[in-house]
Inverse folding.
């Protein structure tokens, strides 16, 4: 069976990472969360005084980008992918609402995207990977053999994110999350560099009314269809 690159793109909180992780595990591929990389850069900005009120100190960030080293590692117990920022496990911190509020602004900066895309391409060199994000099928791997574009209604997505934050012990506010989901959609779709859009050759998956099991079965089918020679 040939090894391929699988690109999963779509709107925020539509379950891309859950689906990408499950698919990678099922077929023995490596999983990469490109959004976690932008989140780690946003966290770095917050921690290093690169945010002034609502403004990002872009020149400061440009000068320090070389100091930001983002890697992934498997959790020894759960085997889930963990994001490391300069060697520190930041998996929990990068999912906070504070980071979510900032991340799309950071991800709209061209010099940040250039650097992240370069790192992402290196991760996919050997193929046999699943990567999720916003521009994986359009910019990072335009030649990916299997591209999926996922969507669901904003309300369904906000509810999913609410449940996720609640399950990890946070005290989320549904309306705040819905607002954040819609605002990130807007920024992601209207930014100049690599805006969020479906690649022409991507398969569209609206999972608003799909169970995890139905989704997994659908993905497996697509995987088989795209790896059989
Ligand atoms: O988990 P969720 O879908 O809510 O977001 P994420 O995948 O963690 O990505 C966080 C943010 O990073 C997105 O809202 C985008 O602004 C940005 N992003 C991007 O611009 N390009 C990517 N390939 C991945 C994420």
């Amino acid at each position: 069976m040939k090894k391929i690159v699988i690109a999963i793109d779509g709107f925020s909180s539509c379950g891309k990472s859950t689906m990408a992780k499950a698919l990678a595990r099922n077929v023995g591929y490596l999983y990469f969360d490109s959004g976690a990389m932008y989140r780690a850069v946003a966290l770095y900005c917050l921690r290093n005084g690169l945010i002034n009120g609502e403004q990002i100190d872009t020149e400061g960030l440009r000068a320090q980008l070389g100091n930001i080293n983002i890697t992934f590692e498997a959790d020894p117990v759960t085997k889930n992918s963990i994001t490391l920022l300069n060697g520190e496990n930041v998996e929990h911190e990068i999912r906070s609402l504070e980071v979510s509020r900032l991340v799309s602004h950071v991800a709209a900066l061209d010099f940040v995207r250039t650097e992240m895309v370069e790192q992402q391409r290196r991760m996919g060199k050997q193929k046999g990977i699943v990567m999720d994000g916003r521009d994986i099928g359009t910019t990072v791997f335009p030649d990916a053999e299997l591209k999926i574009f996922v969507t669901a209604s904003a309300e369904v997505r906000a509810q999913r994110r609410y449940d996720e934050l609640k399950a990890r012990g946070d005290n989320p506010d549904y309306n705040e999350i819905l607002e954040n989901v819609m605002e990130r959609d807007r920024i992601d779709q209207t930014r100049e560099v690599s805006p969020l859009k479906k690649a022409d050759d991507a398969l569209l998956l609206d999972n608003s009314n799909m169970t995890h099991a139905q989704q997994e079965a659908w993905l497996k089918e697509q995987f088989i269809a795209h790896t059989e020679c």
